[in-house]
Design goal:
194 residues, hydrolase, 37% helix, globular, 7-stranded mixed beta sheet, cytoplasm, peptidyl-tRNA hydrolase activity, Rossmann fold
């Protein structure tokens, strides 16, 4: 079993581009830019930006839903059903409140932890048994901010948080070839000890 679909979560539109909730888009954008000839293009039947590419010799789909976060499952489910991608072959990249900026963790399955994008994907796939790459953005309380969570995720990170998130994305990009080959234990070990 290896990863055949990498999904970046975020909200569409220029007003959301730089917000914490778009960390998944940031990683997929960086990944696409790093691959020769890989360009995300609008695909109306999936309501998403999509690219087919090759990573570590494997065919891999990249997807960024063009729905809002809480409807992400529409795009993910549509592409997965069309190309017969099993849930355990999907990696969803998303912002994570429970990890500090600079942290990145890989895991399979588990609850949505209140993340509306994950909730909708779980509902669409009918299972929680897909992979997640969690990019830490911190929590307003642990960062000593008075914002509520909904407001926090829809704002830009402070400069020092942004550079830590970018470092975590760089670390995560280094393990993408391993997950595409199905070397999940090695990828997890490298990411969690890097």
């Amino acid at each position: 079993m290896h990863i055949r679909l990498i999904v970046g979560l975020g909200n569409p539109g220029p007003e959301y581009e730089q917000t914490r909730h778009n960390a998944g888009f940031w990683l997929v954008d960086n990944l696409a830019h790093s691959l020769p000839g890989c360009h995300l293009q609008r695909e109306s039947r999936f309501n998403a930006m999509v690219a087919k590419t090759s990573i570590a010799g494997k065919d891999v789909w990249l997807l960024e839903p063009l729905t809002f976060m809480n409807r992400s499952g529409q795009s993910v489910g549509a592409l997965a059903r069309f190309f017969k991608v099993a849930p355990e072959e999907i990696l969803v990249v998303h912002d994570e409140l429970d990890l500090p900026p600079g942290a990145a963790k890989l895991k399979r399955g588990g609850s949505s932890g209140g993340h509306n994008g994950l909730k909708d994907i779980t509902s669409s796939l009918g299972t929680q048994d897909y992979w997640r790459l969690r990019l830490g953005i911190g929590h307003p309380r642990t960062l000593n901010l008075q914002q509520n969570v909904a407001d926090f995720v829809l704002h830009r990170p402070r400069r020092e948080e942004q550079s830590l998130i970018e470092e975590a994305i760089d670390k995560a990009l280094r393990i993408v070839p391993m997950v595409c080959e199905g070397k999940m234990n090695a990828a997890t070990t490298q990411l969690h000890t890097d």
